[in-house]
Amino acid sequence: MLTKMLLVFFGSGLGGLCRWGVYLGCTKFFGTGFPVGTVLVNILGCLAVGILIIPLAGNGAEREHWRLGLLIGFLGGFTTFSTFGRETVELSQDGNQTAAIGNVLLSVGLGLFAVWVGTRIGTRLMPG
What is the pLDDT of residues 77-121, one digit of tens each? Predict the structure, then answer.
């Protein structure tokens, strides 16, 4: 049990650091008018889940450890649905309805598309 907890703990910490790095880079490049970093990490996280979900499916301790460390830990720390919700509400409250709607459409629409693309990639990576 301790091993599983540590996998999630360290995975989520690393994912959070990577999310922060993407945020800093996007803020520097795009500014703060639209939450580009949040949209980007959510799309990348969805793509990664799609790619990894097939190869990591099934039983076995090794696959479970990878699922805990990568899917639950790293990607849980990397993606930012709560931040997405807060930023969308703030855009709306600031009177920027177009950006709020755009944020929802991009994050949800492209996120679902990224999971679908990721599952196609993951399926092709599976041997046999």
Answer: 999 888 888 899 999 999 999 999 999 999 999 999 999 999 999
Place of tokens 């919700």: 85
CB 101 within 8 A of CB 32: no
Between CA 59 and CA 46 the distance in angstroms is 22
Amino acid at 70: L
CA distance 94 to 116: 33
- 81-93 helix and 97-104 helix, angle to the nearest 10 degrees: 160
SS3 53: helix
Q: What is the pTM of this model?
A: 0.83
pLDDT at site 58:
84
Using CA atoms, how far residue 98 sits from 43, 91, 92, 101, 106, in Å, is 20, 9, 8, 5, 12
- Say how far apart CA 123 and CA 14 lie, in whole Å: 26
